[in-house]
TrEMBL record:
This is Glycine/D-amino acid oxidase-like deaminating enzyme. InterPro entries: FAD-dep_OxRdtase (IPR006076), FAD/NAD-bd_sf (IPR036188). One of its GO terms (molecular function) is oxidoreductase activity. One of its GO terms (cellular component) is cytoplasm. It comes from the Bacteria. It comes from Nonomuraea rubra.
Length: 435
């Protein structure tokens, strides 16, 4: 059964898909967003810690995060429309603890080139700025049932502090804000709507086929389906020329009470990236503390075949591992007997760098491999895809002449070939969640 024709179908209404929809609708395209969930941001976005940091190992990664953070800091202006209650950016700063796998020498030159303010802290500075912190160097991360985990150390570490880092207080609301702004520009959102197929003719996408058998005729499709993105690619028979793959990964974030003094005056404390122990910490106003993992080699990764089959409840084993590591860094932290937190499924690229690109099927584009480190970049990712689509649909080969995106806030030029589906693997990025 034919449906109403649209210019673009965006598959997925997480923070990335909603951003893409907004930027395309702003440019006058008729946009239809479909999502199997019941609302914008109900998938991976809702499980995000929503940390905004600038510590990436490539120039493109650093420049993208720095450009994007201005969107968060001026969120109402970025949206450009009255969309009701807004997600809020909490500027609390981040301390990136020293770690051999991502030394300061890698990213500080990138900070300087981008104009990102930072402070270099010694272990004494770290002790003074984060009350009660253990400044011991314990690398590499170890399992908590390993006797070496509890071994004392005589070496210490410092940190690099970026005062402009922080987090978004409600990631799901952020996606809903973007969706509402896109609607104000004429975009249509269809929830509880699954995709069954991608129709093509003469090497070009022609329609999206829905689970009920109906079709949405269109000239462009953007796959922003998060952990379901590889399935959508298979429906479109694309991916044969990808040098980087993506897989769904189950992740957990623990929620505990922050130790006394971590956040003064009921404010959120400094975010801490602690790859030395394999965790990150993100405070919340009111005394909460989120504890997530950084995928240390000692922990098995929970790759999943079916994102729909993953339980959203935290497990005792992961909770205890993450919170015990946090208590090693913050000895005053109490470890609860009951696991509390959130679990979600991320769409992880082999090298932890997203793919923002065209594909071998004309009219079919991808914004995938984004989970784990790309929430922070949502304000600019929609602009990336809009630029790639505009150039490609006007006959310029993005593979041969990649878009050079210039940030409106920073003036930084970002070569979008860094996010190519055909990029060389492992040549620049860290191969970790840091990107």
């Amino acid at each position: 059964m034919p449906g109403k024709r649209t210019d673009v179908v965006v598959i997925g209404s997480g923070v990335i898909g909603a951003s893409v929809a907004l930027e395309l609708a702003r440019r006058g395209r008729q946009v239809t967003v479909v999502d199997k969930a019941g609302g914008a941001g109900h998938g991976s976005t809702s499980a995000s810690s929503a940390v905004v940091r600038f510590n990436f190992s490539t120039a493109a990664g650093v420049a993208t995060a720095w450009e994007a953070h201005f969107g968060w800091r001026s969120w109402a202006e970025h949206l450009g429309r009255d969309v009701g209650p807004l997600a809020r950016y909490v500027r609390c700063g981040m301390a990136m603890l020293d770690v051999d796998v991502a030394p300061r020498s890698v990213y500080l030159p990138l900070f300087r080139n981008a104009g990102i303010p930072f402070e270099e802290w010694t272990s004494a500075d770290l002790s003074e700025r984060i009350l009660g912190i253990d400044v011991g160097r314990y690398w590499p991360p170890k399992r908590i049932d390993d006797d070496e985990f509890w071994a004392e150390t005589e070496t210490t570490l410092g940190a690099v502090y970026t005062p402009d880092a922080g987090f978004v207080n409600d990631p799901q609301l952020a996606a809903q804000n973007l969706a509402a702004a896109a609607r104000a520009h004429g975009a249509e959102f269809r929830f509880h709507t699954s995709v069954r197929g991608i129709e093509r003719a003469h090497g070009r996408v022609t329609a999206v086929i829905l689970a009920d058998g109906s079709r949405i005729p269109c000239g462009v499709v953007v796959n922003a389906a998060g952990p379901w993105s590889t399935r959508i690619n298979e429906l479109a028979s694309v991916g044969s020329d990808f040098t980087v793959g993506c897989r769904p990964l189950r992740q957990e974030v623990a929620l505990v009470a922050a130790p006394a003094g971590f956040g003064a005056d009921n404010r959120a404390g400094i975010c801490v990236a602690d790859m030395d122990l394999g965790i990150y910490l993100r405070g919340e106003a009111g005394g909460g503390l989120l504890v997530g993992g950084t995928e240390p080699e000692c922990d098995p990764l929970q790759w999943v075949d079916d994102p729909d089959a993953v339980t959203a409840h935290p497990t005792t084993a992961v909770f205890e591992a993450q919170v015990t590591r946090a208590a090693r860094r913050l000895p005053a932290l109490e470890i609860p007997n009951r696991a509390r937190g959130v679990a979600g499924v991320y769409d992880v690229a082999d090298d932890w760098t997203p793919i923002y690109d065209r594909t071998e099927l004309d009219g079919f584009y991808v914004a995938m491999g984004t989970s784990g480190n790309q929430f922070k970049n949502a304000p600019v990712v929609g602009k990336f895809l809009a630029a790639i689509i505009e150039q490609t649909e006007n006959g310029v080969d993005h593979d041969e002449r990649p878009v050079r995106f210039v940030g409106e806030h920073t003036g930084l030029a970002i070569d979008l070939s860094a996010f190519s589906r055909k990029r060389p693997r492992g040549t620049e990025n860290s191969g970790t969640v840091l990107g």
